[in-house]
Amino acid sequence: MLGTASAMPVPDRNPSAQALCVHGRYFLVDCGEGAQRSMVRFGVPLQRLDTVFISHIHGDHVYGLDGLLSTLAMGGRLAPLDIYGPRNLGPMLKFFLSYNEWIGYELRFHPLEMKAPEVILETKSLEVLALPLKHGVDTFGFIFREKEPQWNVEKEAIEKYGLTLTEIGTLKRGEDVLREDGSCIPNAEVAYKPFAPRSYAFISDTAPFPEEAAWLQGVDVLYHETTFLAEFEEQAAKRLHTTTLQAAQLALDAGVKKLVIGHYSSRTTDASLYEAECRTLFPESFAASDGDVYEI
Amino acid sequence: MLGTASAMPVPDRNPSAQALCVHGRYFLVDCGEGAQRSMVRFGVPLQRLDTVFISHIHGDHVYGLDGLLSTLAMGGRLAPLDIYGPRNLGPMLKFFLSYNEWIGYELRFHPLEMKAPEVILETKSLEVLALPLKHGVDTFGFIFREKEPQWNVEKEAIEKYGLTLTEIGTLKRGEDVLREDGSCIPNAEVAYKPFAPRSYAFISDTAPFPEEAAWLQGVDVLYHETTFLAEFEEQAAKRLHTTTLQAAQLALDAGVKKLVIGHYSSRTTDASLYEAECRTLFPESFAASDGDVYEI
Fold it and tell me: Contact B46/A9, CB-based, under 8 Å?
C-alpha cells in the first residue's frame, strides 16, 4: 500500500498508489503524487517495475507518474514500460515526452475503453482484467487473476514408479499414465496443484453500480475505496464515491474473502473508524495504511 | 524546508521545495513532488499561499505543482496566484489548465529571462530579485530583501513633546521636527528603526559561476545547493552542480552571515557529512532537513 489518502493532502498518507507483486513481477496500480518515494521507502524495487495501471486521471491517482517515469530513466531503464489507463491519459504521456526527449526507454500506452470486464493483459501465470467504474471521468478497476497452475509431480513418485520425462509431461497436463503393461498411475495419486489460483481486485474511485457484485464475484482480496463514513452517504453519492457500509455490503454480495479499504476523506483520517463500520457488516474488513503489506 | 533531496527518490526527504514567510505572506520557492503534503505536514497554511517561484523545470523542482494547484482549487481558492519561473514553465501550466478547466482562480505566469539580477516583485516591505544560474536548462535563483523600514517614533516622546500627527509624519520620514518657536526635535533622539532589513537567497541548482559571490554579497541567509561532497567535484562539474566546499567558499566570498545547504545526492543522504565539510571553510553552515525552520 503505497498511498491510502484521497485528494486533499494529509500528513501521514500519500494519495492513491499500490504495488502488486505476482510471481516476482511488480505491477504499479495508480500513481498518486509521491508514489515513487513510497516505493523506495517501503522496499518496492523501482527499477524492476513491470507494468503500470492507472484507474483515472484525477490528480491523486496520476500526478506521481511524471516523477516516476523520469526516475526510471535516470536509473538507466531501457526496457519498454507498458501503461494501461483511460484514453485521456494519452495526451498527458505525450506532453511528458515532449519535454523529456532524453527518456531512454519506450512508453507503450494501452488506452482502455471497455463497457464490461475484459482481459487486457495475459502472462503465463496471470491474467489482468479491466472493468469500467462509475466516477464522472472515465475510470477503470482492475482484477488480477492467477491462472490455474500446472500439476506438479511428487518427487517420491518419480523414484517409486521410475517415471520417464514423457510420463511426467502426461501427469503435468493432468492426465493419468497408462503403461504398455496395462498398469495405470493415476494423476490423483502422484500429482498435486502447487497453489489454488488467487485473485485481487482494485476498485477506486466509484459510486456503487448494479453490475459491481457480479463482476467482482469470488475474488480473494477486494481493495475498494471507502472515501466516506456511512453518515456521509449523500455526499458520497454526489461525488460518485462509496461509503464504508456500501463497500462492506458489496463484499458480502460478491462473496469475497477479504475486504481492504482506503482513499479516506481528509475530513476523517482515522482509518480505524472506517474499518469498524465495515466490520459491522463484513468482519473480514481491513483498513489499509501506507506501508501495509497484504499477502494473498 | 519542505524538501531537501535531489532528483532520485529517498525515504526521508522530499525533493526541492521551501516556504518563506515574510511579514505574514507565504511564498513557495520550488515545488518538487510532495511539496503540498509537506506544507500540510509542517504547518504551512496552503490556502494562504501568496506567490510561487520556480527555479527550473527539472522534475524534482516542479512536479509537485499540478497537485498543489488542484488542491488550492478544491479548497475553494478564488484569489489569483502569481507564478514566476523560466519561460519553459509556461507550456506546463497551459497544459495543466487544458485538462483542469474547473480551476476557479486565475494563474498569472511571469516568465523570467534576465541575464543579471533584476527586481521581479515589489511589495510595501519587500523586494524579490531573480538572477540567472548555470544549470543546462534555464534556471533562476531568488533573493528576498526586506526594504528599509520606516522610522517608528517612541511612545514616550509623543507624550513628552506633545507631538502632532504632522510632526510624527515628519519623524517617520526620517527628518527632524523644526517648530515655529525655533526649537528642534532631532529624529535621532525620538525615532528608531524597528528592524534592520533582512535578506534570504535561494540558489538551486547551479554550477559555480564568476558573478555569483558579487550577486549574493551580504545576504543574511544563503540557501545553496550542495548536491555533492567535495570528493565528487568532477561529477558536480559535469552535472552543473555545486560541492560542499564550493558553496562554503562562495559563502565566504559573498560575506553572508549563514549558509544553509540541501539538495543532497541520493548517493549520500547523511546530511551531517555535507555540513561537516562546509564547516571546515565556513563555520556558520547548516545542513537542512525536511521540516527545519530557519528564522532570519
Answer: yes
ipTM computed for the complex: 0.90
Nearest-by-Cβ selection for B9 from A10, A15, A71: A71
Per-residue 3-state assignment (H helix, E strand, C coil) for B208-274? CCCCHHHHCCCCCEEEEECCECHHHHHHHHHCCCCEHHHHHHHHHHHCCCEEEEECECCCCCCHHHH
Nearest CA in chain A to B32: A67
Has A60 been annotated as catalytic?
A: yes
Query: Which entry of B30, B50, B60, B82 is annotated as an active-site residue?
Result: B60
DSSP state, residue A273:
H
Joined grid coordinates for residue B176: 527632524
CATH 3.60.15.10 corresponds to the domain B17-149+195-287: yes
- B198, B220 contact by CB (below 8 A): yes
- Distance, in Å, from the CA atom of B17 to the CA atom of A216, rounded to the nearest integer, reads 42
- A25-31 and A49-53 strand pairing: parallel
The closest alpha carbon to B130, from B168, B164, B167, B85, belongs to B85
The model's pTM: 0.92
Q: Do you find a cis peptide bond into A82, omega within 30 degrees of 0?
A: no
Tens-digit pLDDT profile for residues A227-245: 999 999 999 999 999 999 9
**Among B218, B224, B202, B221, which residue's Cα sits nearest to residue B274?**
B224
Q: How many CB atoms lie within 10 A of CB A210?
A: 8
- What are the sequence ranges of the domains in chain A? 17-149+195-287, 152-192
- Residue from A6, A8, A31, A103 whose CB has the most chain B CBs within 10 Å, to mutate: A8
